[in-house]
Each structure stands twice: as structure tokens, then as C-alpha cells.
Amino acid sequence: MRDRHPALIDHIRAAHPYGPTQLAALDRLQDEAVGAPMQPLDAAPDSAAWAAWGANYFGKPWSQAPFLWAESYFYRRLLDAVDFFTQGPWYWIDLFAHLKTAELRDPTLEPELAALEHILDLPPQKRTEVLLLASLWGNRADLGFRIGVEAAVGNHQDAAGLIADDTAPVLSLLHTGPQPIAVIADNAGRELLADLILIDHLLDQHGGTTIELHVKPAPYYVSDATTADVTACLRRLADTPGASAAIAGHLRAAMQDGRLALRTHWFYCAPFSFHRAPADLTQMWEPAALVLLKGDLNYRRLVGDCGWAPTAPFQEAAGYYPAPVVALRTLKSEVVVGIDAKTVQDLEDHDPAWRTNGSRGTVQFLARRM
Ligand SMILES: O=P(O)(O)OC[C@H]1O[C@](O)(CO)[C@@H](O)[C@@H]1O
């Protein structure tokens, strides 16, 4: 937070032609980010909620609030500073849109999308595995993580990078037949493209499958996906002729006939773990035969952002979750469970930053509670 948040504010200032009001608000947030006491939200529809959630933290340094709480509040304050929820010229202008757009315009994407033809030649079960792992490693393409840090994302996009691997039970569940699935998305851009390609395959594999794709209700953690980002990704897929464009067409058709539905909930931008999810959100998760939970932040919210021993069982940390769940995550923050002791020791010996450098991934699965 000390390094990344000031760098992000500088970046946002430089990227947009804001006027004195927004610049002054960004300056105030910058002062807080480097040590001034945390201030409450200005008048906004959700300021009463934040006033209650933050009663113990306002007036104190940001470092005294829990990390998950403080990061979440920082992104809410950024929206406030740039008048995102204020009627006027900056209303609902995504301050991170230029970063997400740049990722979709990256010329290296074109050959990757063109290569989809080869994936479609694979036998269906192998294709599920390849696309599931593509969705996992897509989580490395995270813009917030890159800003202000030198992420040592290296050569671990292989079996060695996967330090907990429940792929087998997930694949067998996905191959049982049509079922309701939920995907809780993380980042827009490359990661969301990979998620959408997986979704298309799952819909195609068993007619009768339905999928709900959960996105954030507003810009968050720089690159988190919103409805606008789903639209942008569908357009990007459609721009590459062949398999990619065909997938875009299938997904649009699935949205039109209701097999694929977008969902969101205010709680996805709230500063808490999923233990505190309200009933109307847990009711969205419960019917799923499998919830695919993407990314580092969702993982922290699943297991609780606390000091678990890395060897603590995944079941112990996530057993409360109300549906079968697979967490597909690359490690960008300290919290992790379900890693065997020998692997932990090896990682500590050979790559002490393994929990935060984004180079390791986990596929962790929990079946439905009995
Ligand atoms: O996009 P992801 O995978 O959820 O990663 C978000 C993560 O990035 C960070 O903001 C920085 O590493 C973490 O605090 C957060 O959990």
C-alpha cells in the first residue's frame, strides 16, 4: 500500500484531464496514502455504510486498518476523488478503462487468439483441462499488481508453478453432465478473455449447462472486470476471425437465450471476506454445482484475509462456503492454505517471495458440504 497506492494516484492524475476539484481530491488521498490520517467518505449514497464499517479506523493511519479493508476503501476513495458517482461530466467514467483497453489492443493478443483453432482440435476433456489452466494463468495479467511493484512473474507457467493441484476432481465434476455453474470473475482483459473462452467450452460441452458470470458493480483494484469489460472482451473476440469470432457469437447467443447470464452484487466491492456475504448473494451461489472463483483477491475473501499457516487444510478455511468451489488463483498476497509441508519448505528455501511474486498458482477444490 505504501508504494503501490501513491504510484497509482500519480498514474491516474497523469492519465486523465481532470480539473482542480478532482486533482485536489486526489492530492488529499495522496497525503493520506503516505501517512496522513484516514478520512471518511464525502457525501455519497454509500457513505453511511462506510461510516459504520470504518468507525474504528477513521482518523488513524491507514496502516492500522486491516489490509483487505484498507485496500478496498482506497479504491472506493479513488472513485470518490474522480467524481465517479457524482452527476456531471465524470459520472461513471472508468478511471482504469485506458489500461484495460490497452491490454485488449496488445498486438501479442492476436496470435494467441488465432491459436485457439488448435485448442478446438483437442479432445473435449483435454480441452477442458487446457482452458481451465489458461483461465488460472490468465490471473497473472493483473494491472493493479504490476503498478508500483516489480513482479517477478517468470517461468513458472508449468507444472512446477502449480503448488496445489485439484484439477482432477474439478475435471471429473465438469464432465458429469449439464449443470448450473457460476464464475466469479477477477480481472478484465486477458484473464477475462480466457474465462470467456472456458465458459464457451463448458456451455458447448453439455447442452443444458447454464452459467452465471459474476462481475464487479464498479471499477475496483484497477483491472477488475465489470459489465463494460465483458462487452469489450466480446468485441475483441469478435475482431479475430475464425474460432475467436465464433466463440464471441456463441457467447452472445447464450446471453440472448439465458444460458449465460451476468450477475453482480454490491458486496463484491465491500471491504470484507465472504464470511460476511449477505443472504441475497449466498443465494446466488448456492444453486451452483460448481463455483469457479478467480484470482487472488477472491481467494483472500474466501479463506479470510488472516494469518493461516500455509499448511492449514483448504477445507478448514473454506468449508463454510455454501457451494462446491474451485479457487483458481496466482499468489500475489501472503494468504495461502492447503500447501503440503515439503512444498512450503522448498519454496521458502528457493524463492522466499513465493507468496507474493505472482509466479505460483493453485487449483483448490471443495465438494459440496454434506
Ligand atoms: O487481481 P487479483 O488476482 O485478485 O489480485 C489482486 C491482488 O493484488 C494486490 O492488490 C497486490 O498484490 C493484492 O493485495 C490483491 O489481493
From TrEMBL:
The catalysed reaction is: beta-D-fructose 1-phosphate + H2O = D-fructose + phosphate; beta-D-fructose 6-phosphate = dihydroxyacetone + D-glyceraldehyde 3-phosphate
Q: Which GO terms describe its biological process?
A: DNA damage response
What keywords are assigned to this protein? Hydrolase, Manganese, Metal-binding
Gene Ontology MF, one: phosphatase activity
Under Gene3D superfamilies, the record lists:
1.20.930.60, Uncharacterised protein PF01937, DUF89, domain 3
InterPro entries, per the entry? ARMT-1-like_metal-bd_sf, ARMT1, ARMT1-like_metal-bd
Q: Where is the Damage-control phosphatase ARMT1-like metal-binding domain?
A: 56-342
**Pfam (any one):** ARMT1-like_dom
Superkingdom is Bacteria
Q: Which cofactor does it need?
A: Mn(2+)
For whether the record's keyword set contains Hydrolase, the answer is yes
Tell me yes or no: is GTP-binding among this UniProt entry's keywords: no
Q: Which family would the database say this protein is a member of?
A: Belongs to the damage-control phosphatase family. Sugar phosphate phosphatase III subfamily.
What's the protein called, per UniProt?
Damage-control phosphatase ARMT1-like metal-binding domain-containing protein
The species this protein was found in: Phytohabitans rumicis
Q: What is the lineage of its organism?
A: Bacteria, Bacillati, Actinomycetota, Actinomycetes, Micromonosporales
